[in-house]
Write the structure tokens for this entry.
Amino acid sequence: MTGFLMRRFAAMIALLLVISFVTFSLFQLGPADPASAACGQECTPARVAEARVALGMDKPFLSQYVSYMSGLLDSRLVGAPGAQTVCEWPCLGKSFQTNEDVTAIIERALPYTLSVASGAIVLWTVVGVGLGLLAALRKDKFTDKLIVGAASVGVSLPIPVTGLLLLLVFVSTFDVLPFTTNEISSPFGEAGPGGWFLNYLLPWVALAVLFSAQYIRVTRGNMLETFGEDFMRTARSKGLSRPGIVFKHGARAGITPVVTMLGLDIGLLLGGAVLTEQIFSVPGIGFTAVRAAQAGDLPVTMAITMMAAFFIIVANVVVDAAYAVIDPRVRVS
Amino acid sequence: MNRSTKAAIAMAVSAGLALTACGGPKPAPGSGSGAKADAFKPVTIGKGFTGKGGNVNVLMSTDFQTLDPGNSNYVQTANVGQLYYRTLTMAKETAGQPPKIVPDLATDLGKVSKDGLTWTYTLKKGLKFENGKPITSKDIKYSVERTYARDVYTQAPQELNSALTDDGYKGPYSDGDFKGIDTPDDRTIVFHLKQPFAEFPALVSRSNTAPVPKDKDTKLDYTNHPVSTGPYKIKSYQRGRSMKLVRNDQWDPKTDPNRTALPDTFTFSLSTAQATISQQLLADSDPNAITLDSAGGLQASDAAKLNEPKIAKRTAAGLLGCTDVLGFNTESITDPDVRKAIALAMDRKAMQIQYGGNRFGKLTQSFINSSQRGYVEQHTDLDPSGKPKLAEAKKLLEGKKVPKKLVYGYADATPRYKNIGTTLQQNLKKIGIDLELRPIPAANYYTVLASDKLPDIARSGWCGGADSGSVRTTVDPNLGPSLDGKTYGFSNSQRYYDKKISGAMYKLRGENGTSEELGKKWATLMDQAMQSYPLVPLVRSFTNSVVGSNVRNAQVGYFFGSIDLSIVGVER
Amino acid sequence: MTDPHESPSQTPRVSPSEPADAQVATLSPPPAGAPSTGTEKARAEKAAPVKAAEIDTGRSLLGTAWLRIRRSRIAVAALVVVCLIVLFAVLAPVLTAIEGQDPFTSRTGGDYLDEFYTPGLPLEYYRFPSTEHWLGIEPGLGRDIFARMAYGARISLTIALLSTLVSVVLGTVLGAAAGYFGGKVDMVISRIMDLFLAFPHLLLVLSLTPIMQSRLGGTALDNGSLLPIASLVIILGFFGWAYLARVVRGQVLSLREQEFVEAARAYGASRRSIILRQIIPNVMGVVLVYATMMIPTNITAEAALSFLGVGVKDPTPSWGQMLNAAQAGNWYLSDPWFLAVPAGALVITVLAFNLLGDAVRDALDPKSSR
């Protein structure tokens, strides 16, 4: 196991390096020139050149990349020669737009993304696994057909459609829920858990509609598969009660792939729920990423891409490791 | 305000992809009317209020790009800056009128030498930084020096700098002492100019002259805690979240007749979703709230709500100095008659609708307006109600070489600018011209206009330039010649150059006189230039800003485009 | 289908640096979702045993599948709807000609749009369906919504189908090559797959699309340029192949060791004939399942990107672009119909494709109950 984790860790670092390099290179090809964006108005060529110096973009590509990445190892100096400021470790650079430490920007955005992600994950897991189990137990009955039908529709509802509909109905037309405010980023703040809950309810629902549907399908499918397996048959033949079989034996084997899926989804969502955050104006990671991409803010784009990749990769490693622990049938090599 | 300010605002707003989700009954279409004769009259809420105390809650959808006066071209920063920094002179806002230049740190508007090349200012007595240290002329000189370090401060305001004799000065960090400014004693400061500049008192109202103490200059980090010289100081500032301003006890109201400083505190809620802002303001959920967002944080679809009496009585309004035009590339569409025909074929009314109609902008016939010094009447054959004059346009084109296809370029972040192109596309089809719509990355929009990729037709905006009360600072940058007078100027995206008219403008630049006298000459040249239709005026911004029910003295600044923070107060 | 709504391309739900041979073990008897999983995986597992069934019965794989599909009412209904939608898209010019409208003409005068109360909102007659404008006109620009919806269908479907094709071709070829040749070829291809799977796709696509569009040319279709569509096809296609490649590789890897392939080899069949006659037909099942699943994913991906403002841009219509327009300026609040049209079209289409995908999967799955 240790060897496995070590190898995965090394591979992870290598992969992150490649991803950071690709992102950095792609950025250089982009149509937007951050230097001429920086001075806007009467942006004479001389002024653009000065802005290039200010942003550190006057140096060759490779040295820009190396100096950016060096911030991950130690604090570094940023800015024009003669007027540099310190960027503390871990330095992800300073925003081209506001000169703010990117680390600080991410620290600020993360609680919003965590708020969106945590509630949505709980909601869709409970609903998805619950209904999936129910459907499996009532296979081919009306309940099953209803749930499976609902899941088919749910899985076909794109977030922009669900999100805008929710806003139209619950916020605009009936005015029963508030529009999300950025003043609430955790259940422990002034607004309390209740305020936090109401504030994020719509984004959660928008995500959960889609994801629950997927969890229903996978849970149902896996449960049915497990029911058909030998050990279940054995258990049944031994005269164990039905709920006992389901929860002692079936659930454990049947739920395992759901846990795996969940781990990967968490990793994915921590990189920012871009569409949901955009629609509900939640200033989380995804929202910040879209703004940075539009404004050509390289340091912010870089940091968020790497962070999102990091979460995805870590989630994969964790899931593999966890899988080996939960399900003895799988052995990691 | 110059183009970058405008561009910067446009970016800030569009980048939000903001949503408004305020409820309310659906309007019966056609009923009611926003287009009364006095529709554009300025409205100030609670004028003359003098009650002190309380807190004003300022809602904003984005954080300030910067609070460093030496690195700011942004109107929001200039507005909030009135609270924590003072400048030699000050541009004092009046709704619907260009700001009036009044003395601030200086005792008067400056003494100019006979040749117009030297301006001398004397500081008032008893001026102090928030830490109690006296403000000297050297502090002001240092602040101006900083703004020459453009390789550090990409947004450093340059209007003042380009008027001074600078000899390629690169700022205090690399070049040391600046020769363009003398400080014979602690209260006197002398500026040396390249050419006479009648509007110089307006140039020293820019934030370059806001004192920055040298020992507190943390360069790019200065924005995190600028040292106050105004009535308030920063108590806390969490970037992207909130800021709190409290009274600065070192500020002496006797030295400052311009700021009423009524509330005890200001709190800024930064990066609140734009939707929340308009929802809260329309619903009056916080009676002390105002916003600094452009267009009062409102969307076109909110227009109907502004007619509801409960909301109307809380809506401050005013015309701004910002005008949008469609400019022709006069190098590619060379025939003035063709340009005029295109101008006449335009449905400017439909374009105004893209801005949100009368609640957001007034159709205009000129880049300059009658509230500016030295304005003389401008002539154009455009229909004042914005309707196209197709017959006249077609007649003008008879027997002419008409281009088959033209390109319209627009900043891609703002749907409105693309929609204007779509409207224009329809209009031009009727006179047999195909229009291609070409998106330009918003961040580089003006750089592209200045390059060889300038499209045939492009929108641009101007908010009055260095002195929004002056005609010159609009005409010269937009239609004037280059520095050597031999070709068109850098930000003249029409590439307008007429030997006679541009030559006269070049000569006028060096002339000595009052702003009013010179303004008349500029306005006359502008009128002459406009007869060849280098550009088509579209819409002058009109801003409605809803405020909380306790807010008093709320006026929409002509320059700021939002509630003027220097006089606002709250009823308690 | 993964969660196309959050990430426009296929979501990376796979361990990026999984040891090359772990795949073989996980693919054979399905212990339900080995290290890599997710919905796609779950479906893949169900699809995996296809080969066995096909070999046993001797009947053609696709023939069996077709029989099964025809027996399911839902599947037939989904197929009919899909055909109707495709037909609708193909006939867009005819239909709009019957309506007498086109997707680009704007109507901005006071005869069409409110100029006073809510400037830009279509007058009531034009806001809702009428014989003149079957689905009303847009706020702001007054273009015909039906015509934009119909032409939007063409563009949304073209992008989805072509990008799926790109992914399927790339995924099958690279996956099969990795699985069949093994060794260094496998190593290189597998590492590339890992990279693609670990990339936060949406973020990358957000910054990549403007680059592609600026390199390839404009974003508008009204002047006949197909380049903006091409750039989306390339991007979506390019980011969708890796997962399929992985599955195909696993399939091929296990097929290679199967008795019937060994037998063919023993009879002296050429490598070419083994690939063409044994391997490819046996992989077709899983590829078909994936392809049907990928289409709705790509439809939503296009919608998501255009909604965020980086995909298809006005004046070119697509369903995502129409959603974007409905949200811009909050028009959907005062004119909900404007939102309902593209939203409805999108949901019905995605649903139909999804149901069809399910049917195809079930049809190819011998364990399926139906």
The first helix of chain C runs from residue 22 to 27. Chain C touches chain A through 70 residues (CB under 8 Å). Residues 1-58, 218-224 of chain C have pLDDT under 50 and may be disordered. The radius of gyration of chain C is 23 Å.
